Amino acid sequence: MTVATRPIPPVQPVRAPRPWSGPGFTEFVAIVALMMAVTAISIDNLLPAFPAIEARFSVPDPNRLQLLVYVYMIGFGLAQIVYGPVSDTFGRRPVLLASLAVYVVGCALAMVAPSFGWLLAARIVQGMGAAGGRVLSVAIVRDRFSGREMASVMSLTMMVFLIVPMIAPAIGGMMLALGSWVYVFVSMLVLAFWLALWFSIRMPETLHPEYRRPLSLAATWDAVRMTLRTRVAVGYATALGLLTGCIMGYVGSAQQVFDTGLYHLGPLFPLAFGLVAGAMGTATLINARIVRRLGMRMLSQLGVAAFTVVGLCQVGVGLAFHGHPPLGLYLSLLALNQFLISFAMPNFNALALEPLGAIAGTASSFLGFYTTILGAFCGYLIGQSFDGTVLPVAIGYAGLGGLALLAVAWTERGRLLRGGAST
Predict the structure, then answer these.
(1) Which architecture characterizes domain 25-411 according to CATH?
(2) Who has the most CB within 10 Å: 24, 103, 174, 207?
(3) Structure pTM?
């Protein structure tokens, strides 16, 4: 690496001076959503395979199967710190394709795993590959859009992205029906090849030539310091990480809650999981439609406040029914909370990146690393607390939601529920 010789460009939202030669708006959103969907499908379609994997490798504790989710997220989080700076130098296209190659290697290693430890290592490699899509999808959107327009695009992208959890467990179940949990990883390979082909044919380079940065530790550290000095970025990223912990705690526990440990839904598990995910997708579509009118701050702050209140209701219901409320009641509260969280998470992400347009790649990389590791750690604590009741997830939702609200209050210096000219 060399020492940076150019100063960091001024931080301001920009629009590309060159005419856009890439896909239209709808196709652009679809490609970016598919980049993010690699992450979701790599987690959710493996959930139905947990019992088969437990039997294959004689895993002694069912809670250990949750590590297949959390080690994936560790690899996913750690690798994000690399993709942003590299893409700020070489561009988004080559880095995305390289990350997909890493992801394919992880899939192949998982398919031939001789032990549970090997499978966990393969999941780390998978997560490292999937991280490219997470970082670069946000950076590509930020390359082209800013303000409420960016929030609208991110919401539409998240809506498509959140459809994946509705169908991913069903896809995993179909793969299992073919005879082996290994076929679940075959479906992941197909998705990766499809994305690589579509992206390489249709998506041009989006990084502005004037914003290419030298690949150096000094330049990267300067960008990280700029991010850390930006109160809005740190505060909203912290809130996003805490809410990500809620999602990860739920996902890690979902198979035990709905299938083997509590409600024993068996083949109906994908249906219950899909209903909850459907609430998130619906809210994200609504968010995309109204965020231009209400603004990101107002909408996200209302969302996280209501989410925390419903989380407290989950705790109350869980205690009232000794940790095992009726399935319909529990699903209703859980779906409502997933609905509300979807008004916060996409907007928190956009708000964190809004002032960092000139260093979008590195900023997205560092903030993605931070929010993912924070979310994985909080989710691990929730998941490993599973005790055969709904209370760990409920307490996690209420507690992390409250902490996220405090992080937002710190970010805004106590001035909540106030919109801005562009946010």
Answers:
(1) Up-down Bundle (1.20)
(2) 103
(3) 0.81
